[in-house]
Amino acid sequence: MRVLDLSELLPGPYATSLLADLGADVVKVERPGGDNARAIAPDMVEALNRGKRSICIDLKTEPGRAVLHQLARRSDVLLVEGFRPGVTRRLGVDYDSLRTLYPRLIYASLSGYGASGPQSLRPGHDLNYLSVYRTADGRYLSIGAIEDAFFARLVAALGLTALHVPALARHHDRVLHAARIDATIAECVRTEPLAHWAALFDAADIPYAPVNSLDEVLEHPHFRARGMVNRVDGQPRLRFPVPLRDLPPQDGRAPAVGEHTLAILAELGLPADALAPAEDLHQT
Fold it and tell me: Is 148 a catalytic residue?
């Protein structure tokens, strides 16, 4: 089985590393300059891309797209990660473009906030879905400005000129000064409420996320737009987290204890009293 891996950083490469471990021929398709992780975490690149092969393709060029199509024709799985929704369509390598040419191709796409909904185009990393700086109104937000470009945007937006220096321009240099950087950002963020930072970071296209309560998540317009929350008898129900085409919503209720015992016994060809204790059978 051949897998085309267009992913970067951690989630996609980890998934395809498991397929490589299981014997798949994983071809890592890298843009000019390579996976961002090569500059950020070389050890992680080594760990997650073992046993793969790499090809450098500029998908912004016609020859690059032509080569990718040739690879797709000879592959079983195309895994795309690191692109925001719409990018692969502009490049002509999205699922709808490829499936008509290669119907047997399995296409898996990973993005921070999913392919639909009002937040689908936001940048993000796993940190943005997990944790914390405290804001002036007692709320919390996470900032995932890991790549050099995002960090530059962050310090510019915050006006932190002390961090906007050549010595901190590269990720591996920032790791050495992580405590100081973290303390400086935390001190700045706590001066304004969450809404202030949300508007600022949205305008600057910086990966961030508010830390929401469960009630806020259930009512969030992004999840509602993606159909991730159903209500059954007035109670919220979370749907299967990976949207699949033609997967109907699960509106069923939880069964009562033993509700389907007789039906399942019948499917097995067993009598209705198959589970009755021996003494009950004797009394009957």
Answer: yes
